[in-house]
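Weekend entry, working from home. Most of the wet-lab plans are on hold until the incubator is repaired, so I used the time to fold the two sequences that have been sitting in the queue since the last round of cloning. Logging both here for the record. First:
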Amino acid sequence: MSDTDKKYEIVLATEADKGELLSLYDSLKGYEGCPWDEDYPSEETIDFDLKRDALFVLKEDGIIKATVSIDDDDQVSALECWNSDLAPEAEIARIGVLPDSQKKGYGKTMIAFIMEEAGRRGYKGIRMLVNRYNQKAIRLYAGFDFNVVGECHMYDEDFLCYEKPLQARG
């Protein structure tokens, strides 16, 4: 089956998705450049995202293959590198694709989706922290013309600060 024949849906995650999401997150821990560890992301992280209707999943045949969140992190928001003209900005966080589902376009699909969703929610820009050693993520985001607007050291990791204006909705 080719990629164009695949049937999937992107929906808001629910309480029923918690176990599958934790398994997806766990499957990515330990990958080079992935800053996730035994404590993060956690069930509490999922609860935080669920309460804000900010956690999305890509399901194929009922199985979660990818996920992404719109985060609300005061420490990230406080970084001085962000362009104030793009406020309010959505922060992309916790994007992940199951290891056996990578290289099928799901990461690109999720980024494109979350940018559209952020625009629907009234955000003018989008931003994210990208671990400076996560080459897979850096290659993924390169296709979306994000600007690297700074660097930071947070959560015991070195990050690049990516930012992009969203298309104006008419």
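Second, folded right after the first finished:
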Amino acid sequence: MYVYVCFDVEDLVHPGSDDVALDIAKALSEDDVTAMMCVVGEKARLWEQRGRDDVIAAVGKHDVGLHTNRHSIHPTIAEYLADKGWDDGVAEAVHQEGPGARDLTRILGMPPSTWGTPGSSW
């Protein structure tokens, strides 16, 4: 049987939430479970600024997806794409989300495997 384990790592407000990501990542690794950790680019930058190398190392053992560059900080995805067609929308998404993908790659040592948008983007 295959089980897909996925966590959104998105709380930009409470520094204590860093420990939640750490605990989940470590517990799963101890049981040889690899999860999809969907990390907001800004959250990874906050870990870096806070010197949370422990969180970065633990999360970096899992599959990491980009859960947007800035999540619900305006302009949100729905806002910046509202007046765009396909081609200019793709270009704008790459422009807005590219920094998050680049920072996840730099901070966690691997490129994100996916781009997962927040619920407000549907």
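Plan for Monday: verify the second prediction. DSSP finds five helices and three strands in the chain.
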